[in-house]
């Protein structure tokens, strides 16, 4: 392919997720990847993103604009859990199965692959609550440090989304009974209503990126990410909305994983929580309460300007958030 043709292809379909990796485990449609590098930190890092909604290559956007690449180059033994892309055959997948069965197996696989005695966990968005539910219900699991990146914990403070999903407004049983699952189109619509400028900015901002190829490439990649949303299995969505948003059970302390109560106070490792001021999905007031709920003495709060993706993509992330995470984690690894 000629250089011009290559550039045109990359313009229409940016080549994302290019940091080398290999699959080390799978369970149902979930895949655990270990990224190739030369780790200098003895404690492996497991990244747990949201289930469904969006594809995890956004964390490995482009060379030079990749959180994954940054952490690997900073010497971390970096693992990513990709929950997978779901179809009707997955509508019976529950939060219980993800937290109580899949996550513990992934946890053990990271330790086995790394030959490490403990690991650190970074949870993003929904992934933070799922990983916290496991850590809070299984305090015997070896956990060196925990990072909550834009993950609501007190769901009563989760902004407009909490209002939309309130039990008097949103009948989750009826939605799941009718649809079976949450299709990507509905997620795209909800995301557009929460952040109206997200999709449009990828087009409008093209005018402001003329002459700045790196920024223009980032915008094209984000636009591709917006077009590739992923559905959520029906049983998972039903339990997620009811237990976390409508009943706030994780924060209130009455969530159980199997027969194990999930108590955030049982988490005693160092904890970092980070949020963006204009985030409509995880407002700072919904994230910060984690630091009061855990039993840890070593806690830190990080707040930056921007919206939900600002912690993981863009100049604010690469200049401020990524170095802060790497520095904080390195001192505890």
Low-pLDDT residue spans: 198-211
The helix/strand class is alpha/beta
Please state the overall shape, judged from the principal axes of the Cα atoms: globular
Q: Count the helices. How many?
A: 14
Q: What number is the mean pLDDT?
A: 87
Number of domains: 1
Oligomer: single chain
Q: What share of the residues lie within helices? A: 40-55%
Tell me about the largest β-sheet. Answer: 8 strands, mixed
The CATH architecture: 3-Layer(aba) Sandwich
Which radius of gyration do the C-alpha atoms yield? 19 Å
Within the CATH hierarchy, at the fold level, what is the topology?
A: Rossmann fold
- CATH homology superfamily name: Alpha/Beta hydrolase fold, catalytic domain
Which strands sit side by side, in order, in the main sheet?
A: 1-2-4-3-5-6-11-12
Identify the CATH class.
Alpha Beta
Our measurement of the CA-to-CA distance between the termini, rounded to an integer number of angstroms, reads 45 Å
Write the H/E string, N to C.
HEEEHEHEHEHHEHHHEHHEEEHHEH
Q: Which range does the strand content fall in?
A: 15-25%
Counted beta strands:
12
Question: Could you explain the architecture of this structure?
Answer:
By secondary structure, the chain is of the alpha/beta class. It has one domain: Alpha/Beta hydrolase fold, catalytic domain (Rossmann fold, 3-Layer(aba) Sandwich), CATH 3.40.50.1820. Helix content is 42%, strand content 17%. The chain is built from 14 helices and 12 strands. Strands 1-2-4-3-5-6-11-12 form an 8-stranded mixed β-sheet, with helices on both faces. The protein has a two-stranded antiparallel sheet with strand order 7-8. Helix 2 (67-73) links the parallel strand 3 (45-48) and strand 4. Helix 3 (95-114) crosses helix 4, helix 6 runs antiparallel to helix 10 (234-246) and helix 8 (197-204) packs antiparallel against helix 9 (213-227). The longest helix is centred in the N-terminal third of the chain and has 20 residues, at 95-114. The chain is globular and about 50 Å long.
């Amino acid at each position: 392919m000629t250089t011009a043709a290559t550039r045109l292809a990359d313009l229409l379909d940016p080549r994302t997720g290019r940091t080398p990796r290999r699959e080390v485990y799978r369970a149902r449609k979930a895949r655990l990847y270990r990224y190739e590098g030369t780790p200098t930190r003895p404690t492996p890092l497991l990244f747990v993103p949201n289930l469904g909604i969006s594809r995890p290559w956004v964390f490995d956007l482009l060379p030079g604009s990749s959180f994954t690449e940054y952490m690997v180059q900073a010497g971390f033994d970096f693992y990513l859990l990709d929950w997978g892309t779901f179809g009707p055959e997955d509508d019976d997948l529950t939060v219980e199965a993800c937290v109580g069965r899949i996550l513990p197996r992934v946890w053990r696989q990271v330790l086995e692959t790394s030959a490490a005695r403990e690991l650190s966990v970074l949870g993003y968005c929904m992934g933070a609550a799922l990983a916290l539910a496991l850590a809070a219900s299984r305090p015997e699991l070896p956990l060196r440090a925990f990072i909550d990146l834009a993950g609501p914990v007190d769901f009563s403070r989760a902004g407009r989304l909490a209002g939309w999903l309130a039990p008097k407004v949103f009948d989750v049983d009826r939605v799941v009974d009718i649809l079976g699952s949450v299709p990507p189109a509905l997620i795209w619509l909800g995301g557009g209503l929460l952040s109206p400028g997200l999709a449009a900015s990828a087009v409008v901002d093209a005018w402001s990126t003329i002459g700045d190829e790196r920024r223009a490439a980032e915008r094209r990649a984000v636009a591709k990410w917006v077009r590739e949303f992923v559905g959520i299995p029906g049983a998972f969505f039903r339990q997620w909305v009811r237990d976390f948003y409508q009943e706030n059970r994780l924060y209130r302390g009455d969530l159980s994983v199997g027969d194990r109560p999930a108590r955030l106070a049982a988490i005693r490792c160092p904890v970092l929580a980070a949020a963006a001021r204009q985030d409509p999905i995880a407002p700072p007031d919904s994230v910060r309460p984690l630091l009061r709920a855990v039993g840890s003495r070593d806690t830190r709060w990080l707040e930056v300007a921007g919206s939900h993706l600002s912690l993981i993509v863009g100049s604010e992330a690469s200049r401020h958030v990524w170095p802060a995470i790497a520095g904080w984690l390195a001192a505890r690894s």
